[in-house]
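Q: How would the structure tokens look for this protein?
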Amino acid sequence: MYKIAFAAMGLLVASAAHAQQSVEEFYKGRNVSIVMGTGPGGSYDLYGRLIASHYGKHLPGAPNFVIEHMPGAGGATAANFMFGPGPQDGSKILLAHALPLIEKLQGGGVRFESRKFQWLGAYDQISQVLAIWHTSPGKTIDELKGGNVVLGSMGRSHLSYQWATLLKDSLGAQFRVISGYPTGGELNMAMERGEIAGWTIAWENLTGNQHWLREKKVHIPVQFTLTRMHELPDVPTLIELSTGESKQIAEFLAAGTPHARAMAAGPGVPAARVAALRAGFDAMMKDPAFLQEAEKRNLAIAPRTAKEVEELTERIVSVSPEFVAKVKKAVGAPD
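A: Here is the predicted structure in token form.
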């Protein structure tokens, strides 16, 4: 009886001490994990390592940042972990995928609510294009309409699959899209080997392979962005190529692209730590050393605040079930 009472008292004392611990005391000497839903190699990994090398100096206690890969389900595995069983103390933060889109379009396995994540901000928006290897068919829009083109992708809930499938639907094309590649790095190797003609790749993944662009190893027939990238002024967007309902769906998917370059804390992380993480994120986005290194690595930085990301989240998750059903059919999302 007394042992139970003393044990309960000990827990209360520990909880009180934890609540009184300052943000600086919590982070000092600590490793903070950046959790991402892909494996090594690819644009997420490139950004994650850049952020890991700068974020700590903008937080009280100057913690060390490390990378933690948790691939699976197009980013949903990492998001599920961060939303539920993951530590809710600010020791792990999520380098997010397009979570509101995943939440609305993925049939099962989603155990998170995008609006309940505590968003820290977005460092860019993912700009994806269709890259076709120079020895493969499908280098033009007309060639893509044929049936002898095979594109690769990650999971069916990943934008690499959904953009390619929507392109097929919009063009009335016959090419095939195969899913299941775990990382962008493996898709790149499959493209080089001729296993696939190409895939929906992030622009930063391409600029990380500058020799491909310099030697014209890849062709880009279409880009999956709201407007044409200034680097590709002559390449049409899928929105431009689409009409009617297909165009509305392309615009809906494109509206979710900032979330694929956003960061978030779990729903239970204390408010003071979230405030510090947000302030640190905003400061990092203005840090000349961070921006200089991003430019050196050919990584675009176009930040959005936590509030802006929250507003975009609400816009996506509040759409009607009827429209979601149409989107899911068009992009081949799992039931």
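DSSP finds 16 helices and eleven strands in the chain.

The two ends are 53 Å apart (CA to CA).

Upvote if useful.
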